[in-house]
Design goal:
heterodimer, A: mainly alpha, two-stranded antiparallel sheet, globular, B: mainly alpha
Chain lengths: ~500, ~70
């Protein structure tokens, strides 16, 4: 139908609930998990196998569809994000086999995870604004349901309602922005929009539509005035879902903003720097300062996510190729680190049943393996040298130096230092002596949870020691995004 | 249901702009977009309503100001 990458996921996402309804109830979680994992592995395998081919030239699907150009284009920048989405989806599926064992309707849960991943891949590959919108809605609707999946819990229903109200307004804003673009250019195909906007000068309507698109995608990307849903949704969602939303879907929204700006709005390049540096500074201030006040580990990680979006925006604000490379690299690295943090804190919550910082104090002595993983994730988020967070922050700083906005780079370092304040609190809670009765008979996390956690640890450490492959990937991707001419 | 109204505003804009480019010819792209988008809006509405039912069961009210379990 589309491409084997998406098709295999769609087929397995239909198959999984059917398998789940015929097998005995106590085995549903494992068997449905394996079936959806098969879908993910097929998809990842196919994507990796065509990677050398799309390195030379992107594949267009369908080649020419007549009047209605709804099409996907498999290119390198999209592959970076869809690899992230697929990897995190597969990790979340393996993790959920144990984590969601006691919930009802698990077969639908796996189906929804796969549909959400289809949405993420579709958005990152779409070459057409309306295709982008359809896949975007697929991702949004499934993520609303997944956030409120434990419907018997008060807080998850509340978070889902807040998330849906804000996200629904965002989707409507995106659609309105698209209709304005359609009115300006008469087409929704991205390269054609780029060509026709290059000829015309940007009028007032162009700015209006750009503003609407950025607002709409910015709601998902947690730009600061629009961030209100982030802490609630991340806290109330189950940990694997929080890992996918924080690691892939938020990053995807930032990537879409990048793509729209570098791709279809080269006409109004002036004023980006000021615009994005304002948002970057707001994000860093709010994320890091409010993060310091939290007592709930998942909320802390949510605010740290907001702060990291600010770091990514610094890379975009520089407007150079190096800056975009740094932003894409940080999108990928932050996705891995944040997913690792959410998965390992989820394993701790699974054993202890609380996410308060004082309740998990001393857990490091009872669950050393999980706690090591959480410590690595937190050190990576701080930006410690041997881990991948350091590499991308360093490149963001170098890109600031290169384009002459040193003050923004200095702000990055200052806010990184401030953020260490709350990361250190998590680390201290891990190694503190246990004073809590609740911890007495806590065991190590189950092996099915440790497998995806340690796969992510391996990637975080590996990409920190040997960042060359992903750096080259991000560099080629950013040069693709900068040159629209290659797509036409 | 304010979200539905917001989405419908965008639909009307699409339809209005489809007749704008070439006089006497209406672009079928906008029509197809609006029809698909109405379906999507229906999905969002259905899920929003079902979560509203769950929220009513938990809180006994539909007042969003009373939903204050999560804050900080």
């Amino acid at each position: 139908m589309f491409t084997p990458i998406i098709d295999s996921l769609i087929i397995f996402s239909i198959l999984t609930p059917i398998i789940g309804s015929i097998i005995p109830k106590e085995k549903t979680s494992i068997i449905c998990g394996l079936s959806s994992l098969a879908g993910f592995i097929t998809s990842i395998g196919f994507l990796l196998s065509i990677l050398p081919e799309i390195h030379r030239s992107p594949i267009k699907i369908p080649v020419n569809a007549g009047l209605v150009h709804t099409s996907l284009i498999i290119d390198l920048p999209g592959s970076l994000i869809s690899l992230l989405g697929l990897g995190l989806g597969a990790a979340a599926v393996v993790y959920s086999m144990k984590f969601m064992e006691r919930d009802s309707g698990v077969h639908l849960y796996y189906s929804l995870i796969m549909a959400m991943t289809v949405g993420i891949i579709g958005v990152s590959y779409s070459e057409d604004l309306f295709t982008l919108f359809i896949f975007w809605e697929l991702m949004c609707i499934t993520s609303y349901v997944l956030v409120g999946f434990r419907k018997e819990e008060k807080e998850s229903v509340e978070a889902a309602i807040k998330y849906m109200l804000i996200g629904g307004v965002g989707s409507a804003t995106i659609l309105f922005g698209m209709s304005l673009i359609y009115g300006l250019t008469g087409t929704l195909n991205l390269p054609r929009i780029a060509l026709s906007l290059r000829a015309a000068s940007g009028g007032l309507w162009l700015y209006a539509s750009l503003g609407m698109l950025i607002t709409g995608f910015g709601i998902k990307a947690a730009i600061v005035p629009l961030h209100a849903w982030v802490p609630d949704a991340y806290t109330a969602a189950t940990s694997p879902i929080a890992a996918i939303i924080a690691g892939a879907s938020t990053e995807l929204a930032v990537f879409v903003i990048c793509k729209l700006l570098f791709f279809i709005f080269p006409a109004i390049k002036v004023g980006w720097m000021e615009f994005f540096s304002v948002f970057a500074i707001l994000n860093m201030i709010l994320g890091n300062i409010v993060g310091l006040l939290q007592n709930d580990v998942k909320r802390m990680l949510a605010y740290s996510s907001i702060a990291h979006i600010g770091y990514i925006f610094i890379g975009i604000a520089t407007g150079t190729k190096l800056g975009l490379t740094a932003a894409l690299l940080h999108i990928f690295n932050h996705g891995l680190m944040k997913a690792l943090a959410f998965l390992s804190i989820g394993a701790i919550i699974y054993r202890i049943g609380s996410r308060k910082l004082e309740d998990i104090a001393g857990v490091g002595r009872k669950m050393p393996i999980t706690s090591t993983a959480l410590a690595i994730a937190v050190l990576g988020l701080i930006g410690m040298p041997p881990l991948n967070g350091f590499i991308s922050k360093l490149i963001i700083f170098i890109s600031c130096l290169d384009s002459g906005i040193l003050w923004l780079g200095i702000l990055l370092i200052i806010f990184s230092a401030i953020s260490t304040g709350y990361y250190i609190r998590i680390l201290r809670a891990l190694i503190a002596a246990s004073q809590n009765k609740r911890l007495d008979n806590v065991k190590e996390a189950p092996i099915l949870m440790l497998i995806p956690i340690y796969c992510l640890v391996f990637l975080v450490v590996l990409l920190g020691i040997w960042p060359d492959p992903i750096l080259k990937f991000a560099e080629v991707s950013s040069s693709w995004l900068m040159e629209v001419g290659r797509y036409v | 249901m304010g979200i539905e109204i917001l989405i419908n505003a965008a639909h009307i804009n699409f339809i209005a702009l489809s007749a704008y480019w070439t006089p006497g010819f209406i672009d079928p792209l906008a029509r197809s977009i609006v029809i698909i988008s109405i379906g999507l809006a229906g999905c969002v509405g259905a899920i929003l309503l079902s979560f509203t039912v769950y929220a009513y069961r938990h809180y006994g009210t539909l007042d969003v100001r009373k939903m204050r379990e999560l804050k900080g």
